[in-house]
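The data layer described in this paper is built around a simple, fixed record for each protein. Such a record has a labelled line for the sequence and another for the backbone structure tokens. For reference, a complete record is included directly beneath this paragraph.
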Amino acid sequence: MAVKAAAPAAFGPRDVAKVGNGSGGRGRGRMSVGPIVATASSSSTCHPKAIVGGRRRCYDLLMPTYVAADKKVERELWTTSEFLEWLKPGLHADLIDGERFTPFLVSLRRADLLNFVDRLLDSYIDLRCLGKLYRGVVAVLLGARNVFLPDLAFFTRGQLPRRTATFASEVPALAVEALSDWSAERDVGPKFAEYERAWVLEYWVLDPATVVHRFYRREGELLVEFAAGEAVIRSLVLDGFEMERTWLDPERLPKIAEALAKVTA
């Protein structure tokens, strides 16, 4: 059934009828037919949350931006500032190319694997005083319509002074995403490309369902896979850190203390 959004001129940024991918609370059904044609634009202003590192980032705020795949369906694209205004503590969501994505329920296998990697990395980073690791709580600004909350984000000591109270204006040195049914296509597609463009140094993609994990490292302008098929994964971002691939099986996770002892031996 075709859905028609209300006329843009009659509404403010939060008062529009929304049509989109379903996962972001904008109605059901995803439209991706034909070229995208802008049907409305907005005036530019500076939101208080758009001040980053002493520089003011100004994105469209006064009116929503609509795009249409055809004459019968319109949807709104969010800006970074609108997304940050909407985002509240405790919410985990991504803004990808102007579309808001919020998670569905995830598996316990994924939660167990992410818990293990989180605790192991955090213990090692704290022991070596390398920086800070955050789990799904730091909004990373990547452009006018892209804000990611990585499952795990590591910032070096040199990066820490440049954080704001609520978000990061630069990408983490290491980003980790654990795949799920609702996120896999985006984690290895548009998010991968954006991490690559924004100069993330390492990107780990963990797959708790298949246990086929992939690790990528910066080589010039590209993120290139490393340690493919190898028994031990060695990070260059986390100085001296290495872990065995067999540790990353959600059904055979080792004790944190035992794994950390091997890493630091």
